[in-house]
Every structure is written in structure tokens, then in C-alpha cells.
Amino acid sequence: MEQDLIKHLNAGDRHAFDRLYGLYAGRIMSFCMKYLNSAEDAEDIVQDVFIALWNNRNKLKNTTSVKPFLYTAARNRIINIYRAKVNSPLYEDYVAIRDEHAQEASGSSAIEYKEFEHIVMDCINSLPKTQMAVVTLSRLYNMPVDEIARRLQLRPQTVKNALSSGLKTLRQRLLPLLKYDSVIIFAFLKVFIDNIRV
Amino acid sequence: MSMDELFNKLKNDRLTPDDLRRLKSHINSSSNDELAQYLSEDTGDNACTDDDMLRRIKKRIDSRIDTDQLKARQIRRYRIALTAASILLPIFIIASAYLYFSGRDIPDGSSAMCSVSTAAGEISTVTLPDGTAVTLNGDSRLEFHADFSVKKRRQVTFHGEAYFDVAKDADHPFEILAPEMTVEVLGTKFNIVAGDSGHPSSLTLESGKVALTATGSDEKVTLSPGERATLTPGSDKFSVDTAAIDGSTQWMAKELIFDDASPESIVAVIENHYGVKLNPAIKNKINENFSGTLPGGSLSETLETLSYIYGFDTSNPTVE
């Protein structure tokens, strides 16, 4: 039965594609939620994976089921998310801060990483271009001023100015958010803005 | 503690710094196939899913497939992701959001400030309310008031590189304010590179007439077609030479054509076209001459096509 659907899919039949979606979307979604805590990420993966199925409709000739294709595609995307997360300097900071404040930040009152990341990255990304680049390199990648100056082809004084303006703006934007979770955000502010390494 | 437990903690953000170190080194030294063992599927996958959500996702999939079939260019998404520190370029592409006005006309009559920016390696064309067409190369920014033809003051702010095709209006000169120079235009076509201080600025004129003024010194120069004015950093004077416009607008080509090109020249063309440095892992795989045409619209398109021929991995295309 599925083999017939696949034959039709090979020929570019959108209805066959719809039927395959109906068969597997729910399963892929559950699979993603099993390994990711974020519905947002899981939805993106389901979307990507089925679009990939459509884009590769010609290459799936002589297959009995699209299940391996879909699961492999989803698995690879989940792994990529894991890779990005464990290598993210911001995640490293988050883990360190959470560990240090384990007593105070216990249970459900602690801010989840996804939300934390959104808040911080939104703030950084809304800075003017140069300040954004300088703040990211200095605070997330621990890069010294002269190296930033070299990479961005700016004078060191320009870098220092951009850094101090950028951090000042960040402090102003992040402080009101203390209401979400004072412990984590405050500790982050100390580490990130004042650069007192944990 | 087993790897399975660590992966579970990663999912729930319950890792300790030591856990993270262990997990990170394991993940970084394993391939996707090796890590796949921790993500097993079982027949229990299903049931608790929300039909509304699945329908919503399907709608997005359908509209994406439809737009892909209608347009050649894809719509990009805003994504927050930080990757390993050795890859610098993605910070600028991934960590910022830009507005896109690709090929659409800007509605006249509003008094808002419009700005169009391109990320590195991206090309975009904008039509201004007076009919002027501007094709922006990567990493460029154009700003103007949306009512600028109503107010009859045609002035834009610009930095980066672009090809301007300015609509004729002898009564209302078109003015470009760039960091190091101002350009006054009367119906003409030209390519302009307007760098920040410390980088050269230049304008190559194809047709019409332009007058340039250096911001630092008020030095003026007028150009005729086929001429190029260059302002080098540090000097406040323009130097004028002749230059074929074709040379300066190579970047606008939507296709990269190769005729028995050597690996070195293939790499050079791609690096120049997109303003990037290719990952040595990719360069090493390009080991034979190539004849053919590659799509030149975006780096990922070009590399994807090339990867079918040379068999390299396109996940980390560039290095700093």
C-alpha cells in the first residue's frame, strides 16, 4: 500500500505526499519531542524533513517505505541541534551559572535555556551592527580587544567604544527582565557584562 | 553515568559543567552515524500528537513547496544558533535579522524610513519609488525615505557595493550619501563601492554623468562614461582611470561559467564572487579541472552543485 503511494510520489503526486504526511508526521513529531524539549525545534524538524521528502521524491524509487528516510533525516537534524548546543559558548555560561546557583535556582522557577537564549540573543541582535559584533566576540568568545580589532578591521579605540556602548545598552535592556528569574539573569549579568568569570 | 543519561540531561538542561565537558568531547569526536544509536525509534512513537499542530505544519510545508516551485529564490529564516568559535562568518549571517525587499516596488506616500540590507554572499535588487533600480551586493545597506519621490528630494544613504540604474529626472538630482563620499547623479548607470573609513571607495560609470565629492576634503570630480574614480584611504583626492564596467559588475552575474578551469581558479572565482574563504577541506576535494556553469545566486547553491561533482561535505563551507 505504501509502495503504491511512493510510486505516485515519485511521479510528483501531491495527494500521495499528503497521505504520507498523514501516516508519519505524528510519529516524527513524537520522536523529536522524545529527544528535544522544544516544540518549536520539533516543528521545524518535521517541516524540514517532509520538505526534504518532497524535494527528493524522484530519488526514492523502488523503496517499500519512506520511514527510514524520514527517521534518518530527523535524527540528523536532532544531532545537529545537539552539536550546536554543546559547542555554544552561551550554553556553557548558562550551565556554569545554573550549577553555581543550584540551591537558589531550584525547580521550576529556574529559567529554561531556550528562553534564556532568546532573551540574550534578541538583546544582542538588536544592537547596531558594530556593537553587536564586538560584544559577541568579546563576551561570548572571550576575544581580546586587539584581536577583535584585527578581525573586524577597526581601530582598538573604536572596539573599546563599541564594547562599552554595547554593554551599557545590554545592561539597560536585561535589568528589567530580572522579574523572570532574578538569580540566573543577575548572575549572567555579572558574568557577561562585568566579565567576572565564574 | 552513561552516555544515555548525559543525553537525557542535555535534553532537560540539567547538565553540570563536568557533564557538559564529557558530552561535548564525545559528541565532537563522533560521527552522526555513531551518535544515532542514542536516538532510537520505537513503535511507541505516535499517539500523543496534536492534530491542529500537525495541520499547521502541513500548511507551512504546502506553501513552502508552492513558493519554491514559483520562485527560484528561497525565503530565509531567522535562526539563533552559536557554533564553535573557529567559524566566524556565521555570526554575522545567523545572528542578525534583516529585512528583504527582493525585486518588489516600495509603496510610495509613506513617511517611514526604509532600509534594505544584504548579508554576506547575498545579492538583492530594490526598485525605489522613482523607478531607480539598485542591485546590492553582499554586506551592503541602503536607506531612504519612502516618500522620497513625493518630496522630490532623491537622496539615499549607502554603504557596501551596488549597481545603480538611476531613473532620469533632470530637475531632481539623485544623491547618494556614502561614508567617505557623496555622489550626485543625473540619470545614469554605475557601480559603486562605498567603504567605511580605512577602505577604498570607488565608482565606475557606465553611462550618464556623475559628480563626486569626498566627505573629508570637499574635493570634487566629475566622471564621464567608462571612467572610474577611486578614493584611497588616507588620501582626500580622487584618482581617475578608465575601467570597463563589465569588470566591476562581475558580481551581478547569476551564473559562474568555467571553461576547463583549474582547481585554483575555481576556488578563486568562488571566493571573490562571495567574499569568503573556503574551508580547506572543501578546497582539497576540488582536484580536477571543471567545465560548466554553476548557479551564482548564493554560496550554498554553488557549493551544493559542486559537491555532486567533487563529493565534499557542505556543512562547514567557510573559514575565517
TrEMBL record, chain A:
Domain RNA polymerase sigma factor 70 region 4 type: 119-170
One Pfam family hit: Sigma70_r4_2
The entry's keywords: Sigma factor, Transcription, Transcription regulation
Domain RNA polymerase sigma-70 region: 20-85
Membrane spanning residue stretches: none
Protein family (similarity comment): Belongs to the sigma-70 factor family. ECF subfamily.
Protein name per Swiss-Prot or TrEMBL: RNA polymerase sigma-70 factor
Organism: Heminiphilus faecis
Species classification: Bacteria, Pseudomonadati, Bacteroidota, Bacteroidia, Bacteroidales
